[in-house]
Amino acid sequence: MIIVVSPAKSLDFDSPAKTKKTSEVEFLNDSKELMKGLKKYQPEQLSELMHMSDALGELNFARNANWKAPFTPENAKQAIFAFRGDVYQGMKAEDYSVAELNFAQKHLRILSGLYGLLKPLDLIQPYRLEMGSKFANERGKNLYEFWGSKITDNINSELAPLKTKLLINLASNEYFSAVQTKKLEAEVVTPVFKDWSNGKYKIISFFAKKARGEMVTYIVNNRIESAGELLDFQVNGYRYSEADSTVAKPVFLRKQD
Questions:
Q1: By CB neighbour count within 10 A (0-12 exposed, 13-18 middle, 19+ buried), where does 245 fall?
Q2: Domain annotation covers residue 56
Q3: Residue 100: inside a domain
Q4: Which of 28, 127, 147, 195 is deepest in the core (most CB within 10 A)?
Q5: In which domain, by residue range, is 193 found?
């Protein structure tokens, strides 16, 4: 079984990582190719490309200028500890034991516009390049065309030796669209998290993202390897709703007091 999640815009490269264990980005040469083009963008062009503020344009212009290989513990950080968005706050990977980190390293993958597909302990440097950006490159007009089938092929190769040919999709639509599901040699299960609001259950982005991270940790803590085991997920008030679910999209509902 492989779990996929999105990266985060919020980054933390200041606090120390929990472990000194690291791994290398699989597609670093592809990342170098993308960064070569990205370095040509001025701050205002970056702001326009990713619909961000002038200040963030300046910040990421500086990040791009400083981005260089090789990655080392001195100039980079493990991905699972570098990303600090809602999913990662729910995940709380800093609390993982050595055994849990090892399980995550084998089963968890982070989709990325710049890096393609990351293992949790892959060293990365600060960046921002959203998968949905219309970033023209030598392989096409956007990042989906740039990555083509590479991400899917890599997932298939990692699934091949595993007992369960199952992909748990806890990524956003923007990022999961980089996976070519018709070529994927696995069953895809996409958990959905809904909260009660204004008289009905609906997806509330902040809560749903955090719940995705919590489900990652639930899988890691319990060494889950089947879709059926996911249905016992009961964290922070969420409960599986059979009536609202399909096999491919199990729905978890929460009604807070």
A1: middle
A2: no
A3: yes
A4: 147
A5: 2-26+76-254
235 part of a folded domain: yes
- Average pLDDT on 205-215 reads 97
Is the CA virtual torsion 75, 12, 167, 129 positive or negative? negative
pTM of the model: 0.97
Tell me the pLDDT band of 163, cut-offs 50, 70 and 90: confident
Nearest partner of 68 among 27, 39, 110, 111, judged by Cα: 39
Give how many domains the chain has, as a whole number.
1
Query: How does strand 116-118 pair with strand 2-5?
Result: unpaired
> Between the CA of residue 49 and those of 27, 31, 39, 44, 235, what are the distances in Å?
23, 18, 13, 9, 37
Among residues 49, 30, 29, which one has the least CA distance to residue 40? 49
Does 157 reside within a domain? yes
pLDDT of residue 256: 81
Residue 131 CA to residue 208 CA, distance in Å, equals: 20
**Which two tokens mark 124?**
């990365």
- What values do phi and psi take at 215, rounded to 5? -70, -35
Pairing between β-strand 200-202 and β-strand 166-170 as defined by DSSP bridges: unpaired
Question: Tens digits of per-residue pLDDT, 53-110?
Answer: 999 999 999 999 999 999 999 999 999 999 999 999 999 999 999 999 999 999 999 9
Closest CA relative to residue 96, chosen from 221, 11, 214: 221
Greatest pairwise CA separation for the chain in angstroms = 53
Which of 117, 87, 120 has its CA nearest to residue 102? 120
Q: How far is the C-alpha of 113 from the C-alpha of 130, rounded, in Å?
A: 5
